[in-house]
Hints:
By secondary structure, this protein is α/β, with parallel strands linked by helices. Helix content is 44%, strand content 16%. Strand 11 (350-356) and strand 12 (359-364) form a beta hairpin. Helix 5 runs antiparallel to helix 13 (307-322) and helix 6 (98-110) packs parallel to helix 13 (307-322). Residues 66, 123-125, 128, 151-153, 205, 209-210, 238, 240-241, 266, 277 line the site of pyridoxal-5'-phosphate.
Amino acid sequence: MNKLYSVEQALKLSKDQVQSNYKNHINPEFVKMLKLLNFDKNYIKADDVEVFDQDGNKYLDFLGGYGSLNLGHNRKEIIDEVNKVIDRPNLLQASIGGIYGAAAYNLAQITPGNLSISFFGNSGTEAVEGAIKLARASTGKEKIIYCKDSFHGKSYGSLSITGREKYQKRFNPLLPKTEQVNFNDLDSLKEKLKSSDNIAAVILEPIQGEGGVIVPSEGYLLNVRKLCDHYSVLMILDEIQTGLGRTGKLFAANYEEVTPDIMCLAKSLGGGIEPVGAYITSKKVWNKAYGRMDDALLHTSTFGGNTRASAAVIASINYIVDNDLSNQAFKKGEYFLSELKILEEKYDLVKEVRGKGLLIGLEFNQPESKIMDRLSSGMFSKLSYQYLGAMVAGTLNNNHNIITAYTLNNPNVIRLEPPLTVSYEQIDYVVNSLKDIFENNSNIFNLTINNASNLFKGFFK
Ligand SMILES: Cc1ncc(COP(=O)(O)O)c(C=O)c1O
């Protein structure tokens, strides 16, 4: 056995050592990919919207932990509250967790309508797994309807209802009795619901985050609710990315005053400090599934509802409510979107700017270059399609010290999803940086050539 690292030593590793450990023990291909995109910085400090690398360079985090950092990095108020439970038993499953119960109580106060009974796990995908099981157990029916381009997680159940073939195809067979409809298409949903009386639930995101920040038409959610009621099917709303203030209301469902039967949450629920995922449902739905003593342990998790995670949930909910982060997201989002719309009007590179609150997507126009395609046997188009968002994100990162990323199901879109505590000055800085990139790369062709030489070299090798 080689000598083991202490945490203190791990904190002092050089960038090369960090990469070598990741390469040898976690995911060599991910290291390769980040290197190609020049994304391989070694960040060692973070505070609110700011992150610092080992050379002391400051970056603005507009990725926001894919929506996990609504409260910013290392929010001190949450850490202090978690520290208050530090001498309580953190894991003692054969007992009734007092802090867990209080966290679930808080969640019931802020979620819509009659949602009142929660299950806590440790991630978004676990919240979705729990929701699938609950829907089947509660209704005694089997089918789950999901949307094309959705993202609900990568464990087997969630993956089975994640509408992107790339993530699914290597892992077949997936969960049976899952069927897809188009997002924002009430007719196809109605047809599907009409076609079978074996449907347990419809699951959807109020705004498709990883699908490329797709905002459905006004009234869509409410009509999905009505269709679900009409056909006696449960409605599961995945607010894992949209929830807890992100879109300008506490939950995106609040825009249309919709109460789902099951709501999934995760990401910012733990305040960016503790990993927590949860579903919350009504007493009626829960009782039908698990309302007998014999069923009390049918769905459990060893770490779910642990004391520190629960304290983080209590503190986060209070912080979001006390500081009216939803309203902050609403106002800052309107400002940010209006500034970005000006860029959309002015630059051909930008196809569309869309979003709600501080969940914003920037979609780019695809380049057309017959010459480059001839020289590269079509690789130019293929790469620029798959990595266009990454190229812009790379330029923002390398030239302007701004962290962003493309959306998982649509690599042509970069997401702008900063902590809700972001300042107007920070928003201005990002808008001006984007302007600078668009000015200096008046078309995608230039951007690709200027920024992707590494990428091309990497792929042609
Ligand atoms: C809407 C939605 N659902 C589920 C998930 C999965 O969450 P996790 O990565 O914590 O499993 C994500 C993650 O991005 C998400 O955006």
